[in-house]
Amino acid sequence: MKTLKKDEQNYIEGYAAALQDVMRELTGDDLCSKSYDPMTCEDTVMHSYAFDMKDGGRHHDVKDYEDVEEIKRTLLWEVVSNIQSDLYSKKSR
User: Fold this and answer.
1) Rounded distance, CA 19 to CA 3, Å?
2) What element of type H or E holds 61?
3) Cα 51 from Cα 20, distance rounded (Å)
4) C-alpha torsion 56→57→58→61, nearest 10
5) Cα 90 to Cα 69: distance, rounded to the nearest angstrom
């Protein structure tokens, strides 16, 4: 993937915000207190304090992803992993 079209940018930003809401409701975690701005997308880069994505940093290059579906899967897996971790730690108590 080389660039994100404007409609793809908007979709990913909305998807990230929805996942953030689910995470907050299920775990109370606010992903770095960035619920108001979990992800901002530009043509060639996605910015996020809330999501680590593949590279674990703040700026995520679009070229690291095959398509929007891979970006969605990466975001979803991160949230699922965090929720599972939270549930496991609560069971351990």
Assistant:
1) 23
2) strand 59-61
3) 9
4) -90
5) 31
At residue 82, does pLDDT exceed 70? yes
pLDDT at 7 over 80: yes
* Residue 11 three-state SS: helix
Per-residue confidence (pLDDT) for residue 23, from 0 to 100 = 87
Quick one: average pLDDT of 64-78?
97
H helix count then E strand count, the chain: 2, 3
Q: Cβ(64)–Cβ(45) under 8 Å?
A: no
> pLDDT tens for residues 47-66?
998 899 999 989 999 999 99
Query: Stretch 9-19: mean pLDDT, rounded?
Result: 96
What is the phi/psi pair of residue 52, to 5°? -80, -25
SS3 15: helix
Nearest to 82 by CA among 8, 9, 12, 25: 25
